[in-house]
Amino acid sequence: MFIDFSQYEVKAPKIKAYKCQACGAIYYPAPKVCSQCHARRDPVTGKGWETFDLEGLCTLLTWTRAWNLPEGYTKKYLLFGIVQFENGLRASGRLEVENPVIGMKLNATVIESDERPGKPVKVFVFK
Ligand SMILES: [Zn+2]
């Protein structure tokens, strides 16, 4: 008997970075105007700009521990970090390591976070 597993496939959430097609400059989050060549990015059509998944190897630039989380969180605190990806882009997100050290290598993944009230949002998780 053949079981089709494809229907159970869960697509991993991704966060997009942006690339100006005119000059190749990359951005996250998306700018309105390319700071290198001043090409405009139409926020609706995104014409002239490519997107790509921002993920993978990154370096921890700084981090902080947030206490007193809003009601609904089951943890005492959360760690947040700012990282730099190998392509130079920077992003902030949740840090899931025991003892963060600035400069340490991390791997960035994306989760759909529904811990907060409202719609789930995509957040970076650095491990
Ligand atoms: Zn440009």
Automatic annotation (TrEMBL):
It holds the Pfam family zf-ChsH2. Residues 12-40 form the ChsH2 rubredoxin-like zinc ribbon domain. This is ChsH2 rubredoxin-like zinc ribbon domain-containing protein. It comes from Gracilinema caldarium (strain ATCC 51460 / DSM 7334 / H1) (Treponema caldarium).
